[in-house]
Amino acid sequence: MESRKSRLNLPAGMESSLRLDPVPSVSFFPAIPKTPSPKKTTYGDRFIPCRSSSRLQNFALTEKPSPSKEGGNDAYSRLLRAELFGHDPSPGGTPGGAQGSPISPNKNLFRFKTDHPAPSSPFAVSSMGIGHDNAVEVSTPPKIPRKIPKTPHKVLDAPSLQDDFYLNLVDWSSQNVLSVGLGTCVYLWSATTSKVTKLCDLGNRDGVCSIQWSKEGSYLAIGTSLGDVQIWDGTRCKMIRNMGGHSTRTGVLAWSSCILSSGSRDKNILNHDLRIPSDFASQHVGHRSEVCGLKWSHDDRELASGGNDNQRSQSPIFKLTEHTAAVKAITWSPHQHNLVASGGGTADRCIRFWNTSNGNMLNCVDTGSQVCNLAWSKNVNELVSTHGYSENQIMVWKYPSLNKVATLTGHTLRVLYLAMSPDGQTIVTGAGDETLRFWNVFPSIKTPAPVRHTGVWSMGRTHIR
């Protein structure tokens, strides 16, 4: 007699680990045929397991790991299995305490859907798709929404900080030093060491109306109530120059390299060139009331000014009169040339966006409150506005959608002063409630990939006449 052995329909490489008892031998001698009982089931010589309810561990099957290929990476293999099947047995063993193979079958084997979905992964099967060219594409993981803290992370007392819409008394230098004008004095606060230094005291006859750091952060310009413009060395706490020209208070200042522009209640804008001995090099006349907003573009080619005559002028090219209240808030986009935003006072409450190459208004949003300040983030295409009557809020906007990212509250009076940290992540706001509040509102700047340039670049500059 010759016996036959049954075989399981198992994956290749697993037969060697399984042996079943041989089927009883069959005699070839004639015998009386028997009719099988209807209650018995005739089994063949093949066993096909039911995959939906199989429990291979009941057969005490131990899968032997295939020999590792030369240069193989076991860590990568475990990571790939974990992403595909949602479970990665620890090298220490299998359920029940038995020592097992790192590639032993798990409960999700051959299942298309897990009972408890695991967190999505960019390497998971569900995130892959086949394109028309049969190339496998991996989708980008969804971005996590940025959360802006609703409360300031630091609050400083600022006694005698004036509640005057037309003054500019707070600025943050590129060397991480905050300057604040309080009454007749100017104080310096180091954001690195928290050290406070008294820069100057103008005396009882004069007062601080505006302050502005130079771009490199070495010199601080101070506009006074008598109409003077002083230049101070912030490191040595020493005045190096005093320039006249205005007949009354100088409420706003703006630097452009060696040019310092000043705006005054006398309706005039003076351009002071520090390279020449005279008090000012040129003058812009056009406003019919106090000049309270002044900003140079990032390329130093255009100067935008705003006044209490309810207009924003970009002299001498355009005069824009859509605002219906004083224009103090002005900011240039660091992401797009010829794009400037301006904000109107209590009777206007709008932020308007302009193309200075043709004078067209691009967009407008009603903020619901007096617009006191605007600042455009250099890290992302967003801007922040501070407000007065009646909400005293701080708002962060996306551009160009103008969707609100966040609304921050805390000041009890108009938020008249705004400055941004050198890294572009933190803003400081000041109000007549005599507090300075520091807010984390913008993300860090993304480092751009290196770009190879060919040819020679020539940088030009428009001089003021």
Outline:
One of its GO terms (cellular component) is anaphase-promoting complex. This protein is mainly beta.
SSE layout:
Elements: E1 7-8, E2 46-47, H1 74-85, E3 128-130, E4 136-138, E5 154-157, E6 170-172, E7 177-182, E8 185-190, E9 196-201, E10 208-213, E11 219-224, E12 229-233, E13 238-243, E14 250-256, E15 259-264, E16 268-273, E17 282-285, E18 291-296, E19 303-307, E20 312-314, E21 318-320, E22 327-332, E23 339-344, E24 350-355, E25 360-366, E26 371-376, E27 382-387, E28 394-398, E29 404-408, E30 417-420, E31 426-431, E32 435-440
Parallel strand pairs: 1-2
Antiparallel strand pairs: 3-4, 5-32, 6-7, 7-8, 8-9, 10-11, 11-12, 12-13, 14-15, 15-16, 16-17, 18-19, 19-20, 20-21, 22-23, 23-24, 24-25, 26-27, 27-28, 28-29, 30-31, 31-32
Domain CDC20/Fizzy WD40: 156-439
Region (Disordered): 86-106
GO molecular function, one term: ubiquitin ligase activator activity
Please give a handful of descriptors for the protein shown.
465 residues, mainly beta, Methylamine Dehydrogenase, Chain H, four-stranded antiparallel sheet, 1 helix, 3% helix, 35% strand, disordered N terminus, disordered C terminus
- Report the total helices: 1
Shape: globular
What CATH architecture of the domain at 154-440 would you give? 7 Propeller
Quote the CATH topology of the domain at 154-440.
Answer: Methylamine Dehydrogenase, Chain H
- At the first level of CATH, the class of the domain at 154-440 is Mainly Beta
Name the helicity range. Answer: under 10%
- Report how far apart the termini are: 117 Å
What does this structure look like?
Helices cover 3% and strands 35% of the residues. The protein is built from one helix and 32 strands. The relative contact order is 0.08. With 465 residues, the protein is mostly beta strands. β7 and β8 form a beta hairpin. The chain has one helix at 74-85; strands at 7-8, 46-47, 128-130, 136-138, 154-157, 170-172, 177-182, 185-190, 196-201, 208-213, 219-224, 229-233, 238-243, 250-256, 259-264, 268-273, 282-285, 291-296, 303-307, 312-314, 318-320, 327-332, 339-344, 350-355, 360-366, 371-376, 382-387, 394-398, 404-408, 417-420, 426-431, 435-440. The strands form nine sheets. The chain has a four-stranded antiparallel sheet with strand order 5-32-31-30, with no helix packed on it. It is globular. The chain has a domain at 154-440: YVTN repeat-like/Quinoprotein amine dehydrogenase (Methylamine Dehydrogenase, Chain H). Keywords: Cell cycle, Cell division, Mitosis, Repeat, WD repeat. Belongs to the WD repeat CDC20/Fizzy family.
